[in-house]
Amino acid sequence: MEEVSGRYGLRPAGHMERLGLLSSNLIACHCVWLTGEEMDLLARRGVRVAHNPESNMKLASGVAPVPDLLKRGVPVGLGTDGCASNNNLDLFQEMDFAAKVHKVHRLDPTVMPAETVLEMATLGSARVLGMGGEIGSLEVGKKADVIVVDLNRPHLQPVYNVVSQLVYSATGADVRDVIIDGKIVMQNRRLLTLDEERILAEAKMWRDKVGSA
């Protein structure tokens, strides 16, 4: 932000507005240092936002004003960012962080309830991608994108509220089956379209190459 302000005399949002880049075609990532006026501007221009809380926490970048963006009607989805700033890329854990970081940041346990965060990770993210009519929820006419989560695991029992359990307790390792556009790609935790052993072997090979460089 300081680099942009120093070079162009405007904060990033203002600079992008001057360039004509703020529109519904823009997905703005992170957005951790927005002012109230800038959030109003993003809302007027139809800008969509990708929230990446775990990356922001690891890099000490700041906390995005997601509750304020949602109040303004700005579409907000949930992301992980890349492996350089997020080691596990686990969207379930991202939901957990998203729910909690705003509570502690605002000293308000009612901020970002589990239902809001789950919607942000599903239908909210679909809207951010401009695909709200195709994916993000189970509805007639949409792609059959489904995951089956095994709740019969010690850390997920007892279940009092399924949404709360998914947001605060589940991880990607609890996903048993995955269906993408009606096609089963993982069944009983076994990948059907990828060679997991080969992928792991290649990852280790690149680790060794990078480590010896």
Estimated share of beta-strand residues = 5-15%
Structural class: alpha/beta
- CATH topology type of the largest domain: TIM Barrel
Widest sheet: strand ordering: 4-5-6-7
Rounded mean pLDDT score: 96
Gross CATH architecture of the largest domain: Alpha-Beta Barrel
Major sheet description: 4 strands, antiparallel
Question: Roughly how many Å is the radius of gyration?
Answer: 19 Å
Instruction: Estimate nothing, just give the exact number of structural domains.
Output: 2
Under the CATH scheme, which class of the largest domain? Alpha Beta
Query: What is the H/E string?
Result: HHEHEHHEHHEHEEEH
Distance between the termini: 33 Å
Strand tally is 7
> What are the segments in which pLDDT stays under 50 over at least 5 consecutive residues?
none
CATH superfamily annotation of the largest domain? Metal-dependent hydrolases
Number of alpha- plus pi-helical segments: 9
Shape label: globular
- Proportion of helical residues: 40-55%
Task: Explain what this protein looks like in three dimensions.
This protein has 213 residues and is an alpha/beta fold. It contains nine helices and seven strands. It has helices at residues 2-8, 12-18, 36-45, 53-58, 66-71, 91-106, 114-128, 162-168, 196-212, and strands spanning 27-29, 48-51, 76-78, 146-149, 175-180, 183-187, 190-191. Strands 4-5-6-7 form a four-stranded antiparallel beta sheet, with no helix packed on it. Strands 1-2-3 form a three-stranded parallel beta sheet. Helix 6 (91-106) packs across helix 7. The radius of gyration is 19 Å and the shape is globular. The model has no long low-confidence stretch (mean pLDDT 96).
